[in-house]
Amino acid sequence: MIEINNLNKKFGKLTVLENLDLKIKDGGVFAILGPNGSGKTTLIKCLLGMVIPNMGEISFDSKSILNNWEYRNNLNYLPQIANFPNNLTVSELIKMVKNLRPKDSDEAPLIKRFNLEPFLNKKLVSLSGGTKQKVNILLTFMFDSDLLILDEPTTGLDPISLISLKDLLREEQQKGKTILITTHIMSFVEEMADEIIFLLDGNIYFKGTNEELKKQTGIDNLEKSIAELISKQYV
Amino acid sequence: MFKIFKYSTYDLLRSRWSYVYFSFYLILGFVLLFLNSDVSKAVITIMNIIVILTPLIAIIFGVMYYYNTKEFTELLLAQPIKRSKILIGQYLGLSVSLSLSLIVGLGIPFAVYGLFMSMVIFDFFLLLVVGGFLNFIFVALAFIITLYNENRIKGFGYAILVWLLLAVVYDGVFMIILIIFKEYPLDTFSLVVTMLNPIDLSRILILLELDISVLLGYTGAVFKKFFGTGMGMLSSLTVMFVWLIIPILLMIRKFNKKDF
Asked: Which residues of B touch A88 (CB under 8 A)?
């Protein structure tokens, strides 16, 4: 379980997260939504220890994560932009990441699922954006961890890979994993998410299921309900 | 840390730039020896090149490397690894591969021209040590600059500025001060000022070893008078270590606090 209390983060004068409280229970797909600059990525990065909060407490499995790094062995992160050392080949990169984590991995089925065999001995610099994203997904899903954090996982994927990704997510969901996703693609949210966490101005504006959101806004369409939530910010 | 070091060295040793840098030293060594055909004279020429060029290349490479691997660093940060170990691994990877290019690139031509049978083998060795020090120091300075500047253009600008200040402007200002205040005793002042600049310090260090009084200049002479050759070298090596440790500590401190 993830518990965030009174989280504050400022970048210079810009306040990104303000007194944010959030509890995420174990198991399920949680979509973190919000307009650009609402603090989604910052929130995720605080959780990962990449951004150091000014104030507040974050705990994962009831242990504080601040100034700690061991907890990251139990989470997998898919970054928004995948950029790897250019001169390594795909299989070397896989070997390297495996080497860095004291944990068993299972990459063979994923290589097959995303058709990555022809690229295994190619240098990363020569891969297209979409293929890099597939490698990125592979690196994220090859470890068995309780928490998965995906930042814009659909970027650059072709329709077939997108379907593979969705299948993969469903399997992980059924295994009882906790999956946090940020995305701007509402159909993806509608299809995959158990719960929506909507950020606005650095705080949680809405947390609940699809249906609850639709009920609250009175609009029977997720995309439009989200738009309705966002538009309130400009009133 | 060691794993990251291993992979970043591996990555760098396979990049085109390491080879360009390596070939540069290789060609330089051969050309100088071809023109001089005297190993000990070539050592002096190479010294002048090393103390000016090594810092420039190290600082530019450092900035370039950091910006290029930024996203990968972020990927590493999400792994169960202590922050400082990521930085030190990458830092050592870059510094060691730059130093390897220098050592092997210059080593081959000098070995071919009979370095091992000449008297200057120790001088040459010291030259490589100093070059290595300069690599480590300026890569650390480069990392500090990039950690403070997200903007690449600014980062490159500051890197060149730092090099220019330490390699060129510093000596100019130093000279002007010496001329203006020539009526006063400047021994202690020039000693301190030399120690505050790693490039000047390296030059003195090598010249003390080569023992060429004509090239020593004012500060070198003061150094020699003050410390004698042995003590002078020991104290300047000590200051070099301080020059190495302070930037590394500053770099780690900033990295541990940084938001990615």
From this structure: 7, 10-11
